[in-house]
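Residues pack. One example:


***
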Amino acid sequence: MHCPSTVGSIMNDQTTMTLFHRGEREVQEHVGSREFSERLGRRMIRDRLPGDHKAFLSQLPFVLIGAIDAERRPWASILVGQGGFISAPDAQTLRIETRLIDGDPLQKILSEGADVGLLGIEYHNRIRVRVNGKIRKIDDESITISVEHAFGNCPQYIQSRSYELLPGIASIGEPRATLPAERLDERARQIIANADHFFIATHFSDNSGDESHGADVSHRGGKPGFVRIEDERTLTFPDFRGNNFFNTLGNIAANPRAGVLFIDFERGDLLYLTCAAEIVWDSEESRAFKGSQRLMKLTMDEGVLVEQALPIRWSFEDYSRSLKSTGSWEEVDAEPGR
C-alpha cells in the first residue's frame, strides 16, 4: 500500500538509472518494497518543478529547510515571509526572499553550493511538496536554489491548523532570546511532550557522483506525546506507514544522523536539535505500538531554543484521520506483562 501524493503525480523523464541511493535501496529491500518503490518513484519524482508545485510554493508564508553543518550534522529549520516570498523564475530555480531567524543554526551553515532539502506544507489543506537541490546564490536578503528533485507527498498524519501572520513578519532577523543546550531541559521537554508533529532533516553523500545524494527534510506526525523522552538526551518515536520511498530512513541507514525541529505553535518558540539517529527495526515496543512499522531513536548532540522566533501563530482545527490507526505510548505501557 502506498501513500498517494496530493500534488504532482507525473511521469519522470529518467528511465535508465535508479532514482534512489544505496541507503534508500537498502531500506526498500529490507521491507520488501524495492521494485514497487522504484516504479512509484518514476511516476512521482521529477527533476524540475511542475507548474502546480510552483503555484503551491509561491503562496506559502513559510517553508521548512534542511542542511548540514561543517561537521556534516543535519539541522532542520524554517524560513518565513509574506505570501509570495517564494518564487520560481523557471522550473529548475527557486528564489526565497527572506532573512534567517536570529539564532537559527543555519545562519552559520548555508552557503553557495550547499545541499538543501525543502518542504512546503499547508496544514489546513494537508498538502505538502518536497524539493531537493543546491544553493546557487545566497545573500542577506534571499536564497536562490537550483532544483534537482521535486515531488508531492501524501496528506497522512498532518493535523489541520489555520494561521495568522503577526506584524513581526516584516522584520525577520531581529535579535531573539537564544538558549544553546547540550541536553533536554524542562522547557525543551515541554515542547516535545506537547508536539503532534515535528520536522526531520537528513543527508546522504558518498562522493560517487550518485544523482540521488543531498539533503532532505520531512514531516513526522502522530498523537500528542508520540515522541517519547527517554532521558535528558534521548528521544524515541514510532515510524508509521508512508510513501515507500524511504528517503529519511535511507539517508539514516547510510549516514546515521538527523536534525529535528519542534515548533511551539502558541508562543512561536523553535527548538532545534541535531542528533545521532538509529533505526530500531524490530522490538517489543514497536510491535505493541499500534500502526508502528519500526521505531526511531535520536540521541541529542546539540540543541538551540529560540524564544518567540516565529511571527506566525497557528490555531488547531482537527487531527488527521490517519491517527485513528495509530496508538500511543500509554497504550504500550499498559500492555499486559509490562
